[in-house]
Amino acid sequence: EAGVTQFPSHSVIEKGQTVTLRCDPISGHDNLYWYRRVMGKEIKFLLHFVKESKQDESGMPNNRFLAERTGGTYSTLKVQPAELEDSGVYFCASSPSPGQGAAVFLADEQFFGPGTRLLVL
Amino acid sequence: SQQGEEDPQALSIQEGENATMNCSYKTSINNLQWYRQNSGRGLVHLILIRSNEREKHSGRLRVTLDTSKKSSSLLITASRAADTASYFCATDAYGNNRLAFGKGNQVVVIP
Tens digits of per-residue pLDDT, A89-98? Predict the structure, then answer.
């Protein structure tokens, strides 16, 4: 079974430019998450998709960040315009949904991709 | 908001020795997970322990969870050079899929 994949692995752009990161979750996983780790800080949650819907986007830092998951398969995270403080590693993760009829939506193991290393100059 | 926080220590041990690292958090959780990140690689899930569990084993890994103290420990027994990595704990709260990560513990295993 293929794991979570992310593209590109590295991106170097200039301040003010636009960058789009892509994440392909594990096939069949309804849940898709974006996290990022900026220099010297903890890995921080950005947002959570359930299929194509944004379940929780409370971690998105500002409106320069736009995440989409059209069709409920892969997801993109666009940063426009990029700023210096956006540099870091952007991780994507996916997880399956609990069985049908579950009364409580329990979090489960999240499978992470290798990350995209973004450097904004 | 809840947050996993490892003891901010870097461990340097000899191959064959055991490595222990701790993690504390602040609010009620559904589960606590430990991840490993090798240099330049992604996060690899190691083990998940639920709030109603106290101890869990997986191979050379042993995780404990003390919900009364809001803390967890990860023990790696008989360490190998390949265990050299950063180790993160992550927590999530009931009904909340957001993982809150700690700063990570750097472990170096010397062959």
Answer: 999 999 888 7
